[in-house]
């Protein structure tokens, strides 16, 4: 014992001080020394600045410091930062009030680096002549505080799941509660019914290392065998504890997965424990606790507590799952009820719409039996609903068109919708009416097609207007043809005259005039053809001819009209003696239109490719350009009469939109097909398929 300590102990003699201190100091001599030196409480003497002049030997049992080491320290340097403000305030009040005693609980740093909870009572005896110090006695309450804190942690975990059903958020909050009080980093993993990971959260005292924690898990995820870790907890359903992590402990881990060792070393793992989340015999996941502090090594008591956390966690998760399922069932039931209500409302609303519609709306089975008949149908066809429902739909179909119904039913069975199909139907009084039909399949709850809904619109007025328009076009075309032919003749006469005169400038003007007259002549011819098509009077001659020779001839003629594009016939696929039966001039008209279109709509290209091949029983001619292309939305419509694509980049290509319509009519009259394949900005290929003429024919 030092001289200073002897003086301090001599100062601890009974005197006129408060009754608490008097009780402490009533012993003297050897009894008092024995009490101080062998007691569980630590006795300290300090001045008003917190500098110690005496520490009892029990300081070494409680905090690991020798008395000599401890008195060299200022008391506040060992206090936990979170506890300093309240202690500093209490100490100031204590120093300012002679005889005052204060009791506090706080954390103080053990020599091994761990924090220990103590309960301390300090008395201000600075004014006592024999003492002249602040007398403090304290004892370790870490175990008690640990029990309290662990109980509080369990309560917090339960409260989190009572207040939240979002598992992902709540699991993260649980992990954050565990760190740093029980672990330096923590992982929680959940699995689904197929034992696949569905959620993983992690918390670390250093947020920047959370990625490493997850990387470590990834090293073991899906491995067939593992000595320790989440995978083992999930497979065995048993808790595990590695109190002290040593190189010998890590050796088998390194053999199983060498890539994991650098991550473990970087994390600085010192101690580890884990427990599965099990409820009603089913493993729901696992939770792991890891320490990187040299002084914190998990014990069996710690593992028991971790297992209790896991048990509660699994229980509240299961309760949350059951609650969620119940809520989902209620929501589904409510949704079903609302759906039924909406369907009922929709049924009445649709019924009102159908009944008030200006279009005839008819329902029928796949056998063609009428099941519904609205008011507009009564007005259009003359039959009342009572007369129509239950009757076959063919009662309104002309005898010569009843084959249409077979085609319609066949398409409906395949789920194919029919839109804007123009045809003729018969009224009750025997008169006929032009209608446009849109027919859709009707499905039952299982998605099976059980019938059809048909909308019939009276287009008699539209047909009448179209007929007038066709008549006007036909008349105008005929009226224009004669003067244009005359102008053409006079132009040729002037050409010959100026050729004799050698007037080159006038010849250039006449050449331009002749070009425009040719365009006008073609336009008039197209309009005449269109009017003949509409009237069913377009004439065709049937004769065998060599299609490949016709294509070569057309290529040569069109090539003479352009200097911007090379028309290239693909000789690698070229077929010779491709004979068909048909009107040679009309088929030539189709290819002239396709080639001129290819040139017109590929202004930045310099070539057009043509192929002549045989495919099965068909001759196939393809015309491919490398121009602006046609968007998919328009590819079915470009063959319609007067149709023009309404896009800004096509406004600079004038035309009436009848060339492809005439081409399609000509090809189909030859029992062939015309198809288009295109991609916007990538060019277009038109394919014409015509029946081959076989030798026996």
From TrEMBL:
Residues annotated as domain PAS: 28-98, 346-400
Reaction(s) this enzyme catalyzes, per UniProt: ATP + protein L-histidine = ADP + protein N-phospho-L-histidine
Pfam family, one: HATPase_c
InterPro entries linked to this entry: GAF (IPR003018), GAF-like_dom_sf (IPR029016), HATPase_C_sf (IPR036890), HATPase_dom (IPR003594), His_kinase_dom (IPR005467), HisK_dim/P_dom (IPR003661), HisK_dim/P_sf (IPR036097), PAC (IPR001610)
Residue span(s) of domain Histidine kinase: 475-694
A Gene Ontology term for the protein's cellular component: membrane raft
UniProt key word Cell membrane: yes
Keywords, in A-Z order: ATP-binding, Cell membrane, Coiled coil, Kinase, Membrane, Nucleotide-binding, Phosphoprotein, Transferase, Two-component regulatory system
Compartments, record wording: Cell membrane; Membrane raft
A GO term, aspect molecular function: ATP binding
Coiled-coil features, chain-numbered ranges: 319-346
Domain (PAC): residue spans on this chain: 102-153, 419-471
Gene3D superfamilies per UniProt: 1.10.287.130, 3.30.450.40, Histidine kinase-like ATPase, C-terminal domain (3.30.565.10), PAS domain (3.30.450.20)
E.C. numbers: 2.7.13.3
Taxonomic superkingdom: Bacteria
UniProt topology in membrane: Multi-pass membrane protein
Enzyme kind, highest EC tier: transferase
Biological process according to GO: regulation of DNA-templated transcription
Listed PANTHER family: OSMOSENSING HISTIDINE PROTEIN KINASE SLN1, TWO-COMPONENT HISTIDINE PROTEIN KINASE
Name used for this protein in its record: histidine kinase
Species in which this protein is naturally found: Reticulibacter mediterranei
